[in-house]
Q: What sequence folds into this?
């Protein structure tokens, strides 16, 4: 067992009190489900509890993410938390880890191996919960459920080694914890969003007719990096529906619509939204269509407040289409007011709550998500996505970029 020295707190992603609050909230939720401990291995969940989110730009996160090197955080009702991690990460944890007690595993050769399965079993015994109810990220089937972050065979081996333990689904605890963002988390999302706001302004002034979709994507990524964020998602397309990757052989041409959707992270926290542009002077129909979807989106955002359900926003959105004289896109599958108009945003690009017809989650202050209903036409789809935070008395739009149609000169 390794006890990390106190000097490391200076490089934490958040104040030490932030992590204490997370541990306390986890224990409250554990008590509600009568759990003796939670065993967390999903990489984003481990980062949420253990720190080091800001290392998403480093080699460490690249190694930490693969399932071959799982990190496991254990929180009990009374003790812990304890982190189990490969010894290659000890340097990172010494600088930015939030969990003080760390046990490391390693492979130093064929005859000298400390595997994480045995170490996890022993740690649960040492914490006196090896015969208790243990929550693990089994998931309940939702696409945004936190998934277990170790091979199934490893989990089954842990389960077999602890015959008196009862393993139950604990993913809802992590889903609930991460869904309510602190002011510090929202500030990171805000900084990522500000970088993308500036990128739209600079990019639409820099790109010209004749550039390919991949060249536009490359320019966008460079500008995001220059704003101090990290690009993670870039969709630059000027064609009808069904294309979801920039292409080197498709060029910006006069009159063509450009859909530019950008995702970025700051200190591990994501943003994701788009803006629309046209090459040359926009037609009246293009301006009107973009203005209409901006109105629909803003009207939906204006309904955001604590106490309303996520699914209610879909109904409100659907009711806005007739008000601008537009039919909702055909359903029921895919994006649109028949099914889905948005998604949560945070440590992952898409997480809870999803803004769908089946998401019954009641909105609370601190939730962050993207609203992106479409209008589809023969030339493509029009979207003016907004990044939104739920406040005590309503909402805040974090994305500030102009939502009207840009004209590329």
A:
């Amino acid at each position: 067992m390794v006890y990390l020295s106190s000097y490391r707190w200076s490089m934490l992603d958040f104040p030490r009190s932030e992590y204490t609050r997370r541990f306390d909230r986890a224990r409250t939720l554990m008590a509600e489900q009568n759990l003796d401990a939670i065993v967390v291995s999903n990489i984003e969940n481990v980062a949420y509890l253990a720190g080091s989110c800001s290392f998403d730009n480093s080699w460490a996160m690249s190694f930490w993410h693969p399932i071959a090197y799982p990190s496991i955080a254990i929180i009990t009702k009374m003790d812990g938390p304890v982190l189990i991690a490969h010894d290659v990460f000890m340097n990172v944890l010494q600088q930015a880890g939030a969990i003080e007690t760390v046990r490391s595993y390693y492979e130093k050769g064929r005859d000298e191996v400390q595997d994480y399965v045995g170490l996890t079993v022993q740690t649960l015994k040492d914490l006196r919960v090896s015969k208790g109810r243990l929550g693990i990220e089994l998931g309940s089937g939702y696409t945004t459920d936190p998934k277990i972050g170790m091979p199934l065979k490893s989990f089954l081996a842990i389960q077999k080694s602890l015959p008196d333990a009862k393993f139950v689904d604990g993913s809802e605890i992590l889903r609930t914890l991460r869904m309510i963002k602190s002011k510090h988390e929202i500030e990171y999302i805000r900084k990522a969003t500000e970088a993308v706001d500036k990128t739209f302004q600079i990019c639409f002034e820099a790109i010209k007719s004749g550039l390919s979709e991949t060249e536009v994507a490359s320019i966008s990524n460079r500008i995001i990096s220059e704003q101090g964020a990290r690009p993670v998602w870039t969709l630059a397309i000027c064609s009808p529906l069904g294309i979801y990757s920039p292409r080197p052989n498709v060029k910006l041409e006069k009159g063509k619509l450009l859909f530019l959707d950008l995702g970025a992270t700051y200190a591990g926290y994501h943003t994701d939204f788009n803006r629309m542009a046209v090459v040359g002077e926009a037609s009246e129909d293009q301006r009107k269509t973009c203005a209409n979807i901006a109105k629909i989106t803003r009207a939906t955002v204006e309904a955001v407040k604590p106490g309303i359900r996520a699914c209610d926003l879909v109904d409100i959105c659907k009711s806005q289409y007739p008000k601008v004289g537009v039919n909702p896109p055909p359903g029921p599958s895919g994006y649109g007011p028949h099914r889905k108009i948005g998604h949560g945003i945070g440590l992952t690009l898409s997480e809870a709550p999803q803004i769908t017809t089946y998401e019954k989650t009641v909105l609370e202050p601190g939730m962050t998500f993207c609203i992106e209903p479409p209008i589809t036409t023969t030339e493509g789809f029009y979207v003016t996505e907004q990044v939104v935070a739920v406040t005590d008395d309503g909402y805040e739009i974090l994305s500030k970029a102009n939502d009207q149609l840009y004209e590329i000169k």
